[in-house]
Amino acid sequence: MTKYREILRLKSLGFSERNKALSVSSKRIPDYTYICREFLRKGVSKKLLWTEYMEDCRQTGAEIKVKLKKFNHHILPPSTPFHT
User: Fold this and answer.
1) Which element (helix H / strand E) includes 15?
2) Residue 62 to residues 19, 47, 53, 55, 57: CA-CA distances in angstroms?
3) CA-CA distance, 45 to 51, in Å (whole number)?
4) pTM greater than 0.85 (yes/no)
5) Is there a contact between 72 and 82 (Cβ–Cβ < 8 Å)?
6) % the chain with pLDDT above 90
């Protein structure tokens, strides 16, 4: 469902078309900067980060934007195996 009132409110605040679209989108794009930084911490796995991303989408009602394979690709090179 289109959020016309929210779009009009953002327009009145001077938001760009791109920022308006991102603000009213129901899809959640992972924050890869945060994810890569967290992955460097000891004991953090790709599976844990994926689970956190999925849970965040469920809690906010957002649609999952990326699939597991693409998510993993952004964390480490494709040659690195998925570990738990």
Assistant:
1) none
2) 17, 20, 11, 10, 5
3) 10
4) no
5) yes
6) 6
Condensed to tens digits (0 to 9), the pLDDT of residues 40-73 reads: 889 998 899 989 888 888 877 777 878 888 888 8
Give the total residue count for the chain.
84
Q: Which residue has the tokens 């469902």?
A: 1
Q: What CA–CA distance (Å, rounded) separates 16 from 21?
A: 9
Report d(CA 41, CA 23) in Å as an integer. Answer: 30
Q: Give the C-alpha separation, 84 to 39, whole Å.
A: 12
Neighbours of 47 (CB within 10 A): 13
* Rg (the chain; Cα; Å): 16
Q: Report the distance separating Cα 70 and Cα 84, nearest Å.
A: 17
| pLDDT per position as a tens digit, 8-49 | 887 888 877 766 666 666 667 788 888 888 888 899 988 999
